[in-house]
Amino acid sequence: MSRLIRVTLNDTLIAESNQTKSIEGNYYFPPDSIVKEHYVSSDTISHCSWKGKANYYTICGEKDVAWYYSDPLEKAKDIKGYVAFYKGKVDIEETAATS
What we know:
- Residues 5-88 form the DUF427 domain.
- This is DUF427 domain-containing protein.
- Pfam families: NTP_transf_9.
- Helix content is 0%, strand content 56%.
- With 99 residues, the protein is mainly beta.
- The chain has a single domain, classed as Domain of unknown function (DUF427) (Metal Binding Protein, Guanine Nucleotide Exchange Factor, Chain A).
- The strands form three sheets. Strands 5-6-7-8 form a four-stranded antiparallel beta sheet, with no helix packed on it. Strands 2-1-9 form a three-stranded antiparallel beta sheet, with no helix packed on it. It has a two-stranded antiparallel ribbon with strand order 3-4.
- A hairpin with a 2-residue loop joins strand 1 and strand 2 (12-17).
- The protein is globular.
- 23% of the residues are buried.
């Protein structure tokens, strides 16, 4: 059995997957598990010493709710394109799911 992780913002589903990767307390969602119609690229960037340059998304009008690494450093290559969310800005629900 695996975990199904759902992310909502203002009651709108923005991501759902049972294939997330957990890193530093954050769930990273595969690119095909996000509801892309709600996402707009932001001009915000940040840098992580071991993951590299992060880009951000504005979702449902909320600025910089999520981030991703389009070209991560070698140590973080497994999360290339995966999307993570700020816990205080979205609702994250974890439930049991069948594989």
